[in-house]
Amino acid sequence: GGLWELPCVELGPLSLRVAVSSALSESLGVKLSARRALGWVERTLTHRDLRLTLWSASVEKNITPVVPYEAFTWVTRPETQGLGISTAMRKAVDLAFGGEHNVKSH
């Protein structure tokens, strides 16, 4: 495997809650309902600017992984410390657990 990440999909700049729910449901192969945006994390990479918008959501309890995911694992905040996570995703995880909102880093 590669790095651990929160479920992700790429969307256009004007996507709303319905588009997020639809895209993630299709990507994960599970019924998901996005509830509200929690904030965002921006990161400048060598080849592009990345903006991750974090959403709270409700999802079915039993999820079967679909491509490109190898597995799904529910984790607590302390459990994330031992995972291989990119800097941008680490900031998103921190935001998910109540960290600083709207973070920009290089």
How would you portray this structure in words?
The protein has three helices and three strands. The protein is 25% helix and 25% strand. The chain is globular and about 30 Å long. It is an alpha+beta fold and 106 residues long. Strands 2-1-3 form a three-stranded mixed β-sheet. A hairpin with a 4-residue loop joins strand 1 (32-44) and strand 2 (49-59). The mean pLDDT is 79.
In short:
The chain contains three helices and three strands. The protein has helices spanning 17-28, 77-80, 87-96, and strands at 32-44, 49-59, 103-105. The mean pLDDT is 79.
Keywords:
3-stranded mixed sheet, single chain, 25% strand, alpha+beta, 106 residues, 3 helices
Kindly name the structural category: alpha+beta
Termini separation comes to: 26 Å
Largest sheet: 3 strands, mixed
Overall 3D form: globular
Helix content: 10-25%
Give the strand line-up of the largest sheet: 2-1-3
Can you count the helices?
Answer: 3
Q: Poorly predicted ranges (pLDDT <50, ≥5 residues)?
A: none
Radius of gyration: 14 Å
